[in-house]
Amino acid sequence: MLNVQQVSFQYPGGMTAIRDVTFSIQPGEFTAIVGGNGSGKSTITKLLSGLLQPDAGSVQLFGNPVKAGKSGVGLVFQNPEDQMVASTVEDEILFSLENQRTAPADMPAIVEDVLQAVRLEGFEMKEPFELSGGQKQRAAIASVLAMKPDLFIFDEATSMLDPTGREEVQALMHQLHHQGTTVLNVTHDMEEALHAERLLAFQHGELAYDGAPAPLLHNTAFLQELELVPPFHVRMLEALKAEEVPLQETYFSEERLVDALCHLRPRT
């Protein structure tokens, strides 16, 4: 579906931000892009959404070059206020539909559907800036959802939210994925990234890892190189191993680690 082929990008002034990156994303995948500061994850996000064009290589969606606003890629920003232009939640969604040249007769039903999908029914006439952080982000998601993108990119979409707002947006990501939407979550939060099916880790503008989450999440030395903090249960597992607590499995989810600890026999 999405094909990134030998992509490189250099900012004016000579700094190479992305160097010879190749990967593809299949329909229905839930992928997370991770990396520390200066890793290139922000630049690759802009290339995938068409906000930047590569200096070399290609970014294609279903065989067509990705261009901003015209490619079937929906992007949710870190700060929802950065993509809000209207005076009400309803007008925010209508603005997206007008840009898509949606038939006016179809708009009311779409507005109703997307507000229901993000659990903001009854918020049509609310001003976006009156909403909580989580509600603002859900309103931003609704405006993108109305465009029916083939690929939904969340660019650090939970990093400015409180725990409640973060949970709301993460739940929406999983809801979209379960409905068959292709989801790409760009994040530095490994607690969040562990819920993806696949991780793409960037370092110094290069793709340093492409695979299942567990092997990377439990490689604490490599995570340190990537300037990423392991999830809490991984740090707990490392501490238990240091104390020679007898645990049988190499990779644990948080739930399985708790279950294993509950079944440990006391030392005699």
In short:
InterPro entries: AAA+_ATPase, ABC_transporter-like_ATP-bd, ABC_transporter-like_CS, ABC_transpr_CbiO/EcfA_su, ECF_ABC_transporter_ATP-bd, P-loop_NTPase. With 268 residues, the chain is α/β, with parallel strands linked by helices.
Overview of this protein structure:
With 268 residues, the protein is of the alpha/beta class. Among the domains are: 114 residues, Rossmann fold; 37 residues, no CATH class. Helices cover 35% and strands 22% of the residues. The chain is built from ten helices and ten strands. The strands form two sheets. The protein has a six-stranded mixed β-sheet with strand order 6-7-8-3-9-10, sandwiched between helices. Strands 2-1-4-5 form a four-stranded antiparallel β-sheet, covered by helices on one side. Helix 2 packs parallel to helix 4 and helix 3 crosses helix 4. The protein starts with a strand and ends in a 6-residue tail after the last helix. The mean pLDDT is 86. InterPro entries: AAA+_ATPase, ABC_transporter-like_ATP-bd, ABC_transporter-like_CS, ABC_transpr_CbiO/EcfA_su, ECF_ABC_transporter_ATP-bd, P-loop_NTPase. It is a peripheral membrane protein. Its main location: membrane. Keywords: ATP-binding, Cell membrane, Membrane, Nucleotide-binding, Translocase, Transport. Belongs to the ABC transporter superfamily.
